[in-house]
Structures are given as C-alpha cells and as structure tokens.
C-alpha cells in the first residue's frame, strides 16, 4: 500500500511538472521597443518618442502590435518593422505596420515568415516611424523580448 501511495504521489508531482513545462513553451511571445530619435541612423534630434508592444505567435506565424507615439516634428506618415539588423544598423522593411493609416495608437497584425520570426526572436529587428520632415525615419527602437 505504501508503495502504491508513493507511486501515485510521484505521478502527480511529475504531471504537475509537465504541466508547468507545457505552459512555458507557449507559441505567443511578447516583445517591446522604446522609440527615440537618438536611435535612428543617423540620429534625429527632437522630442519625438514612442512605445511599441508586439505579440508574436510562432505557431500561427503572425505578429500583432500596439504602437503609441508623440511629439513628432510633423504628422506620422509610415511605420515599419525593419530587419534583419542589429542596433545602429539600417535594414529594409520586413513588415508594414500602417496599412490602414497612421492612427495613434497604431494597432494591427500581419503574417510573418520563418525568417522574420528568427530575426524578431533573435533581437535583429527594429521599428521606426517616418514623418514628412524625416522621410528615412524620425524615431526608432530595437525590438527585444518584453522585460529586457
């Protein structure tokens, strides 16, 4: 009887451990970027700032975003995820974030490829917001796992 209770308790402990592992391997990952003109290449002086939060679903191969910005030199004209690129390096557009206009906050979602997922999860992407006065980008932020 003792051996049966011990075996049952070990099964329960093992099951709880496996349940914890299953929860930590979620396919939805959170990312964040703080945008400033100083991060643009070359840097853009000014008071413009922004915050961007992303949810990357690696199973569904989609990314969603919520971006806010303020104090730009002129109205926002476009926003993109660029990559692959480390901080301080420019790269081409990977994901267009403003297909329906430049609302503030800017929200939406888009499909992503395996290569884009690798770039995002590897810290090799950035978001920037373009304006009429700064067509190459006025504010920029490197996309990193949330909390970093």
Mind explaining what this structure looks like?
The chain is globular, with a radius of gyration of 20 Å. A hairpin with a 7-residue loop joins strand 7 and strand 8. The protein has 148 residues and is of the alpha+beta class. The N terminus is likely disordered. Helix content is 21%, strand content 38%. It has one domain: Immunoglobulin-like (Sandwich). The longest helix has 23 residues.
The number of distinct β-strands equals 9
CATH topology: Immunoglobulin-like
CATH architecture: Sandwich
Main sheet: strand order: 6-3-2-1-9
Total domains: 1
Order of helices and strands: HEEEEEEHEEE
How much of the sequence lies in strands comes to 35-45%
Structural class by secondary-structure content? alpha+beta
The rounded Rg comes to 20 Å
Give the CATH level 1 class.
Mainly Beta
Low-confidence stretches: 3-24
Helix content: 10-25%
The CA-CA distance between the termini, in Å, is 51 Å
The average pLDDT score comes to 86
The geometry reads as: globular
């Amino acid at each position: 009887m003792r051996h049966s209770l011990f075996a049952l308790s070990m099964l329960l402990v093992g099951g709880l451990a496996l349940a914890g592992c299953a929860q930590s391997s979620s396919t939805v990952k959170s990312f964040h970027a703080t945008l400033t003109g100083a991060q643009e290449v070359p840097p853009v002086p000014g008071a413009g700032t922004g915050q961007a939060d992303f949810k990357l679903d690696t199973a569904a191969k989609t990314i969603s975003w919520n971006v806010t910005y303020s104090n730009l030199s002129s109205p926002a004209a476009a926003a993109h995820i660029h990559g692959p690129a480390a901080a301080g390096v420019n790269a081409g557009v990977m994901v267009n974030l403003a297909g329906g206009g430049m609302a503030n906050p800017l929200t939406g979602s888009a499909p992503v490829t395996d290569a884009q997922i690798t770039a995002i999860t590897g810290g090799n992407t950035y978001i920037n917001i373009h304006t009429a006065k700064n067509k190459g980008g006025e504010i920029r932020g490197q996309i990193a796992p949330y909390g970093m």
